[in-house]
Amino acid sequence: MPEHTFRLNGEQVTVEVAADVRLLWVLRDLLGVTGPKYGCGINVCKACTSHLNGDAVNPCAIPIGDLDATDEVTTIEGLPATVDAELHPMQRAWLDGDVVQCGYCQPGQIMTAVALLRRVAAEDREVTEADLDGIRNICRCGTYPRIRAAIRDAARDM
Length: 158
Prior knowledge:
The protein is of the alpha+beta class. It has helices spanning 23-30, 89-96, 106-122, 129-133, 144-157; strands spanning 3-8, 11-16, 50-52, 55-57, 72-74.
């Protein structure tokens, strides 16, 4: 079995697995990182959204062989460390806004929202309704109004 090395939540990890195994299964099954959820496995629902080098990606669509040793994967578990805090401002906004209903999609929702706000900040502008409309993560409980409100709240703290 080939070895694959990358950075996960700030630490170098190496796994022995076939190159075509999707990153989601490496995270969940081999490394025990369960924040990214399996929803559809075909890059549609976005429940597994994590960050790859700071960008929102869906690990269910990324073969482990596509990663390099310098690639940084951040999951919901590693998100607070990116701001050197117990909770990331987006996680705090989620709690303050009582966003979660069943909670299954929430790690992916949060990771998508953080990547969006980072992009908006890099463009030196405010988050817009069009930005929020562009989020394609599925929430089967329909907490979209609370998700949007939490993103707007977190934007003030990020």
